[in-house]
C-alpha cells in the first residue's frame, strides 16, 4: 500500500491541494459543489464519479462548513464503491491445459513487460508457463519477450520478423498442449495506426486458437498506460470490440498525475482490473485493491 500511495502521490497531491484551496473557510453551496465537480472531472475521474462524490458530499454537508478532509473522506468512499465491483483477480482454469491468455493493447502500454511480470508470478507459484511472441512486427518486442522468458524460467516460442501472427499463435498453442504447459501467454502487436489490419490480425488469432479449443483464448487481457489519461477510455472501447477483452491491467501507476483515469474506466466499462503496474521491475505488478486505490487517490 505504501508503494501504491507513493506511486499515486502526484495524482492525490494535485487533487488534495486543489480541494483544500477550494474549501478554505467556505460553506458548501452550489458554487463550491460545481467547482469541485469540475476539479474532479479535470482529474480524469469521469463525470459519473464526479457527480457521485458531489452528490454524497451535498447530502451530508450542504449549507455547512466543510474541510478538505471531509471531502477526501467522502471522495474515498465513493471511489471505492465505483472500484469494488471491478477489483477481480485474474482467475486461471487449469483444467484447460494450457489456460491461454491473449495480451492486447496499444504499443508502448506495457504488454511485454506485463507478460514478463505475470510469468514471474505464475512460475513462482509452480506453474509451467510458455510465452509466445505474437508481436511479429517489432524485433525489439520479440527480443524483449525472449529475455523475460529466460528471466522467469518460461518456455519461449517466436518466429521471424513479419511472419503471420496467427500462425505463430496456433503453433504455440499446439506446442503448449504437447508440452503440457499450464499457462500460455501470447503477446500481440498493437499498431493502432492501421486499425483494419490490427482488427483482422487479432480476429484471426482468436479464430485459430478456437480451432484447438472453442473457449480459447480463455482470458483476453488488455494493458492500458495510466499516463495517457482520457485516451485510455477510447482504447478500451476499440479493443473490447475487436478482441473481446475480459479484463485490464493498468500500467505506469508509479509517478503519474493521471491515475484517476482508472476510476473513469471502471465506471464506464465495468471490466475486471486484474492487476496494476507500479514500476518496470519484475515484482512491480500488484493485485488491484479497491479500498487501497481509492484512499491512495483521495489523499
Ligand atoms: P509494449 O509495447 O506494449 O509491449 O510495452 P513495453 O512492455 O515494451 O513497455 C513500454 C515501456 O513502458 C517500457 O520502457 C517499460 O519498461 C515501461 N513500463 C511498462 N510497465 C510499466 C510500469 O508499470 N511502470 C513504469 N514506470 N514503466 C513501465
UniProtKB/TrEMBL annotation:
Residues of the full protein shown: 225 to 523 of 525
Lineage: Bacteria, Pseudomonadati, Pseudomonadota, Alphaproteobacteria, Hyphomicrobiales
Name this protein carries in UniProt: Signal recognition particle receptor FtsY
Description of how the protein assembles with itself and partners: Part of the signal recognition particle protein translocation system, which is composed of SRP and FtsY. SRP is a ribonucleoprotein composed of Ffh and a 4.5S RNA molecule.
Keywords noted in UniProt: Cell membrane, Cytoplasm, GTP-binding, Hydrolase, Membrane, Nucleotide-binding, Receptor
Binding-site residues, GTP: 105-112, 187-191, 251-254
Superkingdom field: Bacteria
Cellular location(s): Cell inner membrane; Cell membrane; Cytoplasm
Similarity annotation: Belongs to the GTP-binding SRP family. FtsY subfamily.
EC number: 3.6.5.4
Catalytic activity: GTP + H2O = GDP + phosphate + H(+)
Domain SRP54-type proteins GTP-binding: 272-285
Amino acid at each position: 500500500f505504501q508503494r501504491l500511495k507513493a506511486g499515486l502521490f502526484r495524482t492525490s497531491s494535485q487533487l488534495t491541494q486543489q480541494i483544500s484551496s477550494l474549501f478554505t473557510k467556505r460553506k458548501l453551496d452550489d458554487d463550491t459543489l460545481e467547482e469541485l465537480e469540475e476539479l474532479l472531472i479535470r482529474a480524469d475521474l469521469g463525470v459519473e464519479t464526479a457527480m457521485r462524490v458531489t452528490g454524497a458530499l451535498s447530502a451530508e454537508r450542504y449549507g455547512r462548513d466543510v474541510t478538505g478532509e471531509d471531502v477526501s473522506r467522502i471522495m474515498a468512499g465513493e471511489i471505492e464503491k465505483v472500484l469494488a465491483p471491478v477489483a477481480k483477480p485474474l482467475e486461471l482454469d487449469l483444467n484447460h491445459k494450457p489456460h491461454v491468455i491473449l495480451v492486447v493493447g496499444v504499443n508502448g502500454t506495457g504488454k511485454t513487460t506485463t507478460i514478463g511480470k505475470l510469468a514471474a508470478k505464475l512460475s513462482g507459484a509452480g506453474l509451467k508457463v510458455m510465452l509466445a511472441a505474437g508481436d511479429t512486427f517489432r524485433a525489439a518486442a520479440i527480443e524483449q519477450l525472449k529475455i523475460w522468458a529466460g528471466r522467469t524460467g518460461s518456455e519461449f516460442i517466436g518466429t521471424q520478423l513479419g511472419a503471420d501472427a496467427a500462425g505463430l499463435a496456433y503453433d504455440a498453442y499446439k506446442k503448449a498442449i504437447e508440452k503440457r504447459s499450464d499457462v500460455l501467454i501470447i503477446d500481440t502487436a498493437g499498431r493502432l495506426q492501421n486499425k483494419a489490419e490490427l482488427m483482422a490480425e487479432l480476429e484471426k488469432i482468436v479464430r485459430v486458437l478456437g480451432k484447438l479449443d472453442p473457449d480459447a483464448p480463455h482470458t483476453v487481457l488488455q494493458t492500458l498506460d495510466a499516463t495517457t489519461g482520457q485516451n485510455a477510455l477510447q482504447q478500451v472501447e476499440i479493443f473490447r470490440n475487436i478482441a473481446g477483452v475480459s479484463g485490464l491491467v493498468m500500467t505506469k501507476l508509479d509517478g503519474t498525475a493521471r491515475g484517476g483515469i482508472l476510476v473513469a474506466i471502471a465506471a464506464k466499462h465495468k471490466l475486471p482490473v486484474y492487476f496494476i503496474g507500479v514500476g518496470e521491475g519484475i515484482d512491480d505488478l500488484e493485485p488491484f485493491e479497491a479500498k487501497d486505490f481509492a484512499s491512495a487517490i483521495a489523499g
